[in-house]
Amino acid sequence: MRAYLDPIAPLPNAPRIQTTILITAGANDRQVPVSEPRQMVDALTNNGAPVAYLEVGDQGHGFRKPWDSMYEGVAQMEMARDCLLQ
User: Where are the beta strands (DSSP E) in 3-86?
Assistant: First the structure.
């Protein structure tokens, strides 16, 4: 399984990513510790890729609270608008 997953893992492939990307994370996520999306943001930023990062302090894996979910949706729409206007 490792031989399959390693080549497609996001962090080792960060240097190949050149497109605009939005990364969202919940600080209380038990499945994906917040340190992992932060590492990805750092790797993309160091490679010059355009990246936006949204971290919500009181959310876990997936935003469940209405305001947080709505804010995430707005961030996605803004990102899409910016990409389409480039």
Answer: 21-26, 51-56
Q: How many helices (H) and strands (E) does the chain have?
A: 3, 2
Torsion-angle region of residue 56: left (phi > 0), alpha (psi -120 to 50) or beta?
A: beta
Look up the pTM and report it: 0.83
Mean pLDDT of 20-37: 92
Query: Tokens representing 12?
Result: 């080792």
d(CA 26, CA 55): 6
Dist. CA 55–CA 57, nearest whole Å:
6
Q: CB count, 10 Å around CB of 31?
A: 9
- CA–CA gap between residue 72 and residue 47 (Å, rounded): 25
